[in-house]
Amino acid sequence: MNIGLKKTESGGIECFLTYDKPSNITMGCIEFTATASSILLLILTFPFSLFWCFKVVQEYERAVIFRLGRLRQGGARGPGIFFILPCVDNYCKVDLRTVSFDVPPQEALTKDSVTVTVDAVVYYRIEDPLNAVVKVTNYSNSTRLLAMTTLRNILGTRNLAEILSDREAISSTMQTSLDIATDPWGVKVERVEIKDVSLPHQLQRAMAAEAEASRDARAKVIAAEGEMKASRALKEASDVINESPAALQLRYLQTLSAISAEKNSTIVFPLPIDILTAFMPKK
């Protein structure tokens, strides 16, 4: 503590007190004393203290150790056994496996002023355990909230047709945005998939009516083209038959053969006039 005097604007003298922050030497002494006391306690309670000093992390886990609130040097520990001092060390486990979560359905207004509801699924993993523990309070909850807002922002820049037909581009854009935003937290976004796109019922009925009208129009066009081709083929057939009268007789006999194949009891057919020409008197 320091005592000082300073002159005020009115000409008087003011007394003030200042407090100095603990120096690095003082903090080092306190840390050394606490560490030594912890080691002494470890020795006095040996071998029972080993149950609290030795910890194990799995292959897919890492341990971030703090000593008196400071991050220990050497990075995250694991996998395997690591040692901590009682009373002065605490640690936090971080799972490195890929985690997936569902993004709740988000209602957003598209670029062409259509309200849609879209949900997705996000896959991520911890790439840097130290940043995941030190730089963010809850990396899982933060990533979920960020995914929700990112999905709504991306939907606002796309038309309805793009959302319905190009989901892969939306997923890729969302993954890139999330990966850039979560990189300072030590989180790596591996994959984003759009699950479902829901439209209002009125818009669904309108789109169904539009699709039905489009199908009817295509059916009429196809039927008209078929009629045109059939007419051309019939005209060509009539021209061929007109060139050869015998072809007409063969077609007539083929028709009689087709009729005789039917299971009818009585068949009445006209007699072709060309057969009677042989019995008619010649001029």
From TrEMBL:
One Pfam family per UniProt: Band_7
Source superkingdom: Eukaryota
Residue span(s) of domain Band: 52-211
PROSITE patterns (alphabetical): BAND_7 (PS01270)
Transmembrane domains' residue ranges: 32-54
Location in or out of the cell: Membrane
InterPro entries: Band-7_stomatin-like (IPR043202), Band_7 (IPR001107), Band_7/SPFH_dom_sf (IPR036013), Band_7/stomatin-like_CS (IPR018080), Stomatin_HflK_fam (IPR001972)
Keyword Transmembrane helix: yes
UniProt xrefs under Gene3D superfamilies: 6.10.250.2090, Band 7 domain
One GO term describing the cellular component: plasma membrane
The keyword Calcium belongs to this UniProt entry's keyword annotation: no
Record's keyword terms, sorted: Membrane, Transmembrane, Transmembrane helix
Family of the protein in this entry: Belongs to the band 7/mec-2 family.
Name of the protein described by the UniProt record: Band 7 domain-containing protein
Organism: Ignelater luminosus
Lineage per the UniProt record: Eukaryota, Metazoa, Ecdysozoa, Arthropoda, Hexapoda
